[in-house]
Design goal:
By secondary structure, the protein is an alpha/beta fold. The protein is built from 8 helices and 15 strands. The chain has one domain: Ribonuclease Z/Hydroxyacylglutathione hydrolase-like (Metallo-beta-lactamase, Chain A), CATH 3.60.15.10. 27% of the residues lie in helices and 24% in strands.
């Protein structure tokens, strides 16, 4: 297999091209649609560069694979599907995320009959990509829909783990759970030590190159939040304490109302314009609870 990584610096996100060169079949994992919240304008340059790289290699994009419903960037899944005819897959837990955020944004008919995803994946499922067999692992904790794609010695882990110096993902979003995250990391740490963990994010300091991956062995030895010997209760206490200090991601409101729709903007209104909503003076938790 061949893996190409693309770093989108505004959100610190990694998008991946995974390909079986023999058959020419390829997948895009966690595609980014760059969005400026001040102007409300999008930029397709980043994801178009990914598609051009695949085309130059002679690869056919057959799948768009999301590791979870991202809260820090908009998904370009719909654009990839429109350009390539690829199918779109994510974790089956997306339905709970959709139900929660349909209440936040007062969306009707989500998910139900108009599910934008072609496959909702669970532990033990496989996605075929040419001769490659991509196994699905449930890895909730950061979000309830988080999954990992395992193929050969490569695991695409979403936000479950970061580079060793950055630790692990936050768990304070609706459906998040620090205890579940610990168990998910232990599942990843049970993989062979040489397994490459491909990360969804890195936020390098000035002068440092972004890191797209780390081996299981290195993460187990060096991760600042969850290395070998870290007890579950200690991790939960530290993770929950840290999460209480974190601000919401800058793009969480625009991102989730697009991402629960598989990367589609909300339906245009009677003037032909799509609008993103910002709840006024209400928290996400209040709106989910119906308060």
């Amino acid at each position: 297999m061949e893996i190409r990584s693309f770093h989108e610096p505004d959100s610190g996100t990694w998008t991946y091209l995974l390909a079986d060169p023999d058959s020419g079949a390829a997948a895009v994992i966690d595609p980014v649609w760059v969005y400026d919240p001040v102007s409300g304008r999008t930029d397709h340059g980043f994801i178009d560069n990914v598609l051009e790289s695949a085309a130059a290699a002679g690869w056919r994009i057959e799948w768009v694979l999301e590791t979870h419903a991202h809260a820090d960037h908009l998904s370009a899944a719909a654009r990839v599907r429109a350009a390539t005819g690829a199918r779109l897959a994510c974790g089956a837990g997306i339905t709970a995320v959709q139900e929660n955020f349909a209440r936040v944004f007062n969306f009707a008919g989500v998910p139900a009959a108009k599910q934008p995803f072609d496959r909702l994946l669970r532990e033990g499922d496989e996605v075929s990509l040419g001769k490659l067999r991509i196994a699905v692992l449930d890895t909730p904790g950061h979000t309830s829909d988080s999954i990992t794609y395992l193929v050969g010695d490569a695991a695409f882990v979403g936000d479950t783990l970061f580079a060793p110096g950055a630790g692990t993902a936050r768990c304070d979003f609706p459906g998040g759970d620090a205890g579940q995250l610990y168990d998910s990391v232990m599942k990843l740490y049970a993989l062979p030590p040489q397994t490459r963990l491909f990360l969804c994010h890195d936020y390098p300091a000035e002068g440092r190159q972004a890191v797209c991956g780390v081996t299981v062995a290195r993460s187990r030895a060096e991760n600042i939040h969850i290395r070998d010997g870290r007890e579950k209760a200690d991790f939960i206490a530290q993770r929950e304490a840290r999460d209480r200090t974190l601000a919401l991601p800058r793009l969480i409101l625009p991102a989730l109302q697009v991402n629960i729709l598989g990367g589609h903007a909300p339906a245009a209104e009677d003037n032909g314009v799509s609008y993103l909503k910002i709840p006024f003076n209400r928290t996400i938790e209040e709106l989910i609870a119906g308060d």
